[in-house]
């Protein structure tokens, strides 16, 4: 019974992340951006000073295979949010001069949202 409850909670959490992404980023043009040897898809909303970042579909599948093959212990020493935060800041440095990432959180792995402030 505990396993079923845990599976239901995980499924609902995933749905919440998908719903959040759709509600806040639907219709936003995707931009490809390479940073640290990885290509990301970035959904930037400069009017709200927020963006969502996720690896390209091919990179996400490859990362999932690597993580599965290493029993989930692979990854950046910064942790996933740190890696995405660095890539988001690199995007801002390249596209929106004077902007700095201020806060962020995971929407649904591997999608992260970051807020930023601009001078």
UniProtKB/TrEMBL annotation:
<keyword id="KW-0732">Signal</keyword>
<feature type="signal peptide">
    <location>
        <begin position="1"/>
        <end position="21"/>
    </location>
</feature>
<protein>
    <recommendedName>
        <fullName>Lipoprotein</fullName>
    </recommendedName>
</protein>
């Amino acid at each position: 019974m505990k396993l079923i409850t845990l599976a239901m909670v995980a499924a609902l959490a995933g749905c919440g992340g998908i719903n959040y992404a759709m509600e806040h980023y639907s219709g936003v043009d995707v931009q490809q951006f390479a940073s640290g040897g990885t290509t990301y898809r970035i959904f930037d909303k400069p009017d709200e000073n927020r963006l969502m970042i996720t690896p390209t579909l091919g990179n996400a599948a490859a990362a999932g295979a690597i993580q599965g093959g290493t029993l989930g212990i692979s990854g950046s020493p910064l942790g996933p949010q740190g890696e995405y935060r660095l890539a988001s800041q690199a995007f801002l440095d390249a596209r929106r001069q004077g902007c700095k990432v201020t806060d962020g959180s995971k929407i649904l792995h591997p999608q992260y949202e970051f807020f930023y402030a601009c001078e």
